[in-house]
Prior knowledge:
By secondary structure, the protein is mostly helical. It has helices at 2-10, 35-38, 41-65, 68-78, 84-101, 115-127, 134-152, 154-157, 161-171, 178-181, 184-205, 207-216, 226-246, 250-268, 270-289, 305-357; strands at residues 104-105, 107-111. Helix content is 73%, strand content 2%. The protein has a two-stranded antiparallel ribbon with strand order 1-2. The N and C termini lie far apart (69 Å).
Amino acid sequence: MARFFWIILTLFSPSAFAHVKWFTRESFAKPPITFADLNTPTFWNLFVLSMFTLASLVWLDRRLESWGTYRKMNEYFDQFTSRATLILRVFTGASILLSWQVDSMIAPELHLYSSGWGWYQFALALLLLFRVTTPVAGAGMVVLYIFAATQYGIYHLLDYVVYLAIGIFLFLSNSTDKRIKDLRIPVLYSGLGFSLCWVAMEKLFFPNWGLDVLQQQPALTMGLPPEFFLMACAFVEMSLGYLLIICLLQRPLALVITIVFFTTTAFFGKTEVVGHTLLHGALLVFVVVGQRGTYQPPIAFHKNLGLRMAFASVNFAILFALLAYPYHRLSQQAYDKHQHMMQEAHGHAEESHSDGSR
């Protein structure tokens, strides 16, 4: 029970959402750990606990629906639904300008080496000032995402599928076809949910990255063993991403995540602001929109409470399996490529040294 209590606390820990690539001093010095390495009692206990917690949250969601205060809160936020696009335009524009200022694109570690693409981002921010040009900005974000994938590889850019989802959201924002326009919400939920789930995998398969961050900020562990705490954070992040995908407890969940993201700034500073401003915009959209529109959320496929609980827990296990194998495969390929490049660089350095000594 004590360990369960500490796991719940990790939900409010900044490191549960820290993108370790932004802060670790590690790179691909070590290969990703194997599935055999993950096959530990701690891993399976956290896995089963996550499934149980998700099923319990389905029950909680049903209880909240009958609570008058919760219904009034939903009615209050419903007043702002029409401002969803404006909210995302403001936060996206701010995020793009911050990236432009630090010579990056999409995320802090994706550096720009061409001033032309920097000015391209500035133009996107200008386009977001006006409702009529917002779809053009959205299309431009999709183009920038594709360009970044050609520079850094699709494996790296899968961390930032949410950026692509926001581009699509903005591109569809002025559509006069309700069914097309309503696609924006499931695309945004799925994009951010996938990004959180995918990034959670790096905490599992590259624990040395996360442990390096915890070594720099030991207070984040709240007194727990770093290895256990890091794995617990991975399951918390994976679970929250999954909840966004199936659209369970959308508004409370979005509020919790955005509050935690704000607290990370105290630990990680300006880099965190640059990286997460875009996500704050998406989360605030979830707060004002909830789940409205033409398309039924996945969690609503079943009306029966027991079936919903089974749906939430079983599909979590399925999604985990569907993500874990390709993540490990792609990360191993990225490691092998990095090692090959390091060997080539070392060989060239030795040749230069040999030529210089003659």
